[in-house]
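[09:14] KT: can someone run the structure on this one? pasting the chain below
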Amino acid sequence: MYCTRQITPTITWVGGNDRRLARFENLFPVERGVSYNSYLIVDKKTALMDTTDSAISRQFMDNILHTLDGRPLDYLVVNHMEPDHCAGIEELMLRFPQMQLVGNAKTMTLIQQFYDMPLDGRTVVVKEGDTLPLGQHTLQFFFAPMVHWPEVMVTYEQTEKVLFSADAFGGFGALSGNIFDDEVGFTRDWLDDYRRYYANIVGKYGMQVQATLKKLSGLDIQFICPLHGLIWRTNLQMLLEKYDLWSRYEPEEQTVTLFYGSMYGDTENAAEILATKLADAGIRNIAMYDVSGTDVSVLIAEVFRCSHVVLAAPTYNNGIYPPMLGLLHDMQALSVQSRTIALMENGSWAPTSAKNMRALIDGMKNMTVLEPVVSVRSAPKEQSLTTINAMCDAILESLKKN
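[09:31] RB: done, structure tokens below
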């Protein structure tokens, strides 16, 4: 049975939701599930904007057939070839033999890599800025390479001023009937998942996001329709500002997040002492996470939120406690930069984790490491408080400068 909503009188959301999915890309926990968005324009010609994941293929096809109401599907625009958005291509090609695939040259290469089906006479290959008239609607195509695959493009509908933005401007979380940004409490219920989505899915490509934002800045955009998450029709400026901030690697808040690894609680205790002193000094919105029990995608999102990051880890096999090492490797891989870092280590006989953590941080761009380093021998003692107090002072002074 169909389940659709109107974006405008002629543009229909024909996507669906997957609340059974445990991990997005089999990596990132999605406790609230995820939506797979697709949009159908009905004009003299009909055009579908991307397909969905195979997990919701039955719902997706019901939605399309209901919206078409017996009409043929003329065009399938493929903005992004990741499998959670292209799984319906083959079935649509078979069901609508006159349908044309619209994409760029890299799109067509990927289609042939994923599928074994003839494309002769069934493709419209577009270049930057090309247009495709549907009747009253006209589609215009803009390339957005590496946001976050090399073939990605976005499609702008000129008449109703709708941007179909591929994976850009999306977020984790299934939709619950309310598909528009002004129907939900975004800051309260959605912002954390949007930040986590950006940081982990798109975060590495800040330079490319900046280039895309610049390219789109000249368009009059009234709707943003991404492939995951909410459809934006009211607070577009807020969303664009978040993307601008995140893609410049600027923190959202001048505050501190503390990440600790602790085998028996002593390193955690040192981090707790520091957090309490920072709170006593008036720092708000402090966050604290056990790296052994928190998915790394959450930690990465907090790095994007906070200006200052405390890394506290015991020495393990003369190196870095493994979950902390994993976080640092993800920070490197996602091009995290322009943060202020404070280091705490613990070691009963040969503490070396701070030195090893610093070596990895030094390989990142525009990172500032504060002094002193807190080095705990087994468990925090009175002498440890002196160094923790000094670290607290250094963090506070750094926050004032920012």
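[09:33] KT: thanks! Residues 270 and 380 are 6 Å apart (CA to CA).
[09:34] RB: yep, looked fine to me
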